[in-house]
Design goal:
It is a single chain. The chain is mainly alpha-helical. It folds into 3 domains: 104 residues, no CATH class; 142 residues, no CATH class; 115 residues, Tetratricopeptide repeat domain (Serine Threonine Protein Phosphatase 5, Tetratricopeptide repeat), CATH 1.25.40. It has a 5-stranded mixed β-sheet. A hairpin with a 2-residue loop joins β4 and β5. α14 runs antiparallel to α15 and α15 packs antiparallel against α16. The termini are far apart.
Amino acid sequence: MREQYSGPEGVGGPDAWLPQWWEYLKTAFLEFWGLFLLALFGVFKMFSRSRSRAIGLVLTWFCLVGLTGLYLNLPLDQFYLIGDYTLAAHIFILLFAAWGLEAVLSGGEGGNRSQWEKAAILILALFLVGMGAQRYTRERQTDYTATYDYVLNAFKDLPRKALYYCRGDGIVFPSWYFQWGEGKRTDLAVIGVDGLPMDWVRRNLALFHKDLKVPFAQRPLGTESIPSLSRWIVDHNQDRELYFSYNKIDDGNLSGFKSIPYGLNLRGYPPDQVHLLDAGLDDFCWNGMRLRNLKDPRFPLDSRTRETIVKDYAVFRNTLGIFYENRADEAHAKLSPHSKAKELLGIDRDYQKSYEQFNWAQEWDPANPQYVFNTGNALFHVGRVQDSFSWYEKAVNLDENYTIAYFNWAVAALQLQQYQKAGELFEKVLELKPDYPEAKSGLLYLIQHENYHHFH
C-alpha cells in the first residue's frame, strides 16, 4: 500500500475519485482504439450465458480499477500516471473483447455463417494491422533517445563521487539503469529523493557505495522523513559535492541551501559558503549536449516525453538566464556615482547572457509565456526597449491574465513616451489586480501630467 506515501494518498474524496475513474475509462477506450465497446458487448452476451462467470470477472476488473481510483489522489497534471497504475486491468478488456468477438463470429446462421466469420476476421485483421502500424510509427523505441540522452547529458555535468539528488521517474530509474546495467558513472551517489523513506532504497545506496554514510531507522518511515534524511546524508558526506537534478531546491528538504546552475543540474552549497559560477564550465555543459531526434519531424515524440523530458532543457536554460539576470540586478542595485566602467560592463554582459538563455528557452518551448516574458525583460535590460514590446505582447497572448507582463509592457511604453499605450496597459493591470500600487502610481502620473486620456 506504499506506506511511505500514506500522507498524500488514500485521502481523496468523490471530487478526486470520479475524475480519476473517468480518466481510466478514457484510457481504456483509447488503448485499443475503442475495443472497449466490443468488450462491453462481450460482457452483455456472457451475462446471458454464464451469469456467475460474467459477474465474477467484471467485479475483479472493477475492483482493480475502483481501488486504484480510491487510493490515488493525483493532481490533474499527473493523470497520465493512471494509465500506468491500471495497466494490469487491461487484460480484462482483452478477455471481455474476446467474449464479444466470439459472439460476433457465432452470429451467422446456416450457409451465411462461413461468410460472416470471414468478414469478421477480415475486419479484425484490418483493425489490428491499422493499430499496429499506428503504434509502430508513434510508439516505437528504435529512435527514442530522449531519456537516454537526457540522463547522459546530466551525468556529463557532474564531478566524480557527487551526491546526486534526483526527482522524477524519468531520471531516477534511467540513472540506476546506467549504473547497474551499463556500468556508467558508478561513482555517483544517485539519491531518489521521493524514495528515501523506502528502506530498500537506502540499503541499496549503502551496498552500492561502500564509503557512503546512509541513515537507517528501526521503524517504517513516511514522506515526512524526507527533509531529515536528505539533510543527514549531506551533513555526513561532506567530502562529496552536492548536485540536484531539479531546478527548485527550496522545498524544505535542505532549507537555506543555495544553488548555481550547471547544464541540467544545480550545484548546491550551504548558506555559509560562497561559490561563483564557472561560466566556461557552464558553456561546456550546454555546448556538448546530445540532442538527437528531439526536433526532427521524422521522429514525432509522445506528449509525455515532450512535457516531462524535452521541456526540461528549456527549464534549466531559463534557470541559467534567471541566475544571470539576478546577478546583474544585484550588481546594478549596488552602483554608485563612483562605480567603474568595468562594473558597468559586467552588468551589461550578464544581462546579455540572460537574454541568450531566455531566447534559447523560448525557442525550445515557445508556448511557455514565462520564457517569452523573460526574453522581453532581457531585451529591455540591454536597451532594446522597442524590441521588448513584441515579446510582452506575445506573453499576454499566451496568458491573457499575465499581470506582470502587462505592467512591464506599460513601463516600456512609458519609457518610449508612448503615453496613451502606457495608460491603457496600466488600466489593464488594475483590471486584473485592482490593488497593484505601482500600476496605480503610473496611471496617476500620466493623468496628472495630462498625458493620458481614458474613456471609461
